Backbone:
């Protein structure tokens, strides 16, 4: 039928995630770590946007953002998120669901310090998701931050940090001919993971 291997149900989901991400790093034209992140208000109204995955280990999946942004405010009242990676070049998707926890300030400081100077100034100057009366206001705020910090260290803004998604479910989806796709979902049961194949 097809020489695409079926998803190995004996795989560790984090190892399988790493293998698929590694394939995407080779095949995607840019941002293989881009993912859609869905949040919802406390009464369940969803919103979704793209973010970059900035860390993953057996604890979970980390992204960074402005805590007072729309997503930041939604996460404060409802910690449940859904993540979606879709790699067109590989015809694969991965869905992840679970609550978030805040990363430690040490971890956020270390990641913030690794960003380019302009990215750090941007985080200082941007009131993400709030109305901006004109682009020049933002440019003036960037210039003010630039002059304030000069070549010295730029402290991480108090409203900028990271979240770790603690996965309760991780689903792998592989395209196969004639839409006879392959799906397998790992769900967390305490410290162990159960796996099951799903109809496409
Ligand atoms: C490929 C891509 C990657 C992005 N990565 C981030 C990110 O890592 N952090 C972030 O705050 N915004 C990122 N953005 C911008 C978000 O999509 C979004 O515009 C912003 O976070 C505000 O979302 P909100 O108003 O729902 O809070 C990215 C956008 C794209 C298209």
Residues:
């Amino acid at each position: 039928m097809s020489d695409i291997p079926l998803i190995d149900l004996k795989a560790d989901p984090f190892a399988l995630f790493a293998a698929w991400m590694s394939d995407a790093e080779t095949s995607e034209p840019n941002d293989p770590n881009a993912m859609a992140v869905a949040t919802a208000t406390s009464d369940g109204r969803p919103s979704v946007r793209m973010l970059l995955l900035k860390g993953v280990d057996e604890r979970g999946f980390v992204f960074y953002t402005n805590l007072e942004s729309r997503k930041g405010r939604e996460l404060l009242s409802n910690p449940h998120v859904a993540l979606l990676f879709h790699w067109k070049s590989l015809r694969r998707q991965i869905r992840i669901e679970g609550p978030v926890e805040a990363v430690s300030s040490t971890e956020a400081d270390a990641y913030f310090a690794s960003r380019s100077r302009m990215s750090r100034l941007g985080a200082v100057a941007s009131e993400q998701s709030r109305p901006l009366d004109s682009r020049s206001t933002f440019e003036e705020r960037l210039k003010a931050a630039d002059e304030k910090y000069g070549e010295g260290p730029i402290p991480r803004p108090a409203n900028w940090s990271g979240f770790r998604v603690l996965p309760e479910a991780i689903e792998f989806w592989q395209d196969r001919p004639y839409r006879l796709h392959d799906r397998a979902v790992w769900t967390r049961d305490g410290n162990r993971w159960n796996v099951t194949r799903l109809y496409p």
Notes: The pocket of flavin mononucleotide is lined by residues 31, 34, 47, 49-52, 63-66, 69-71, 128-129 (CB under 6 Å).
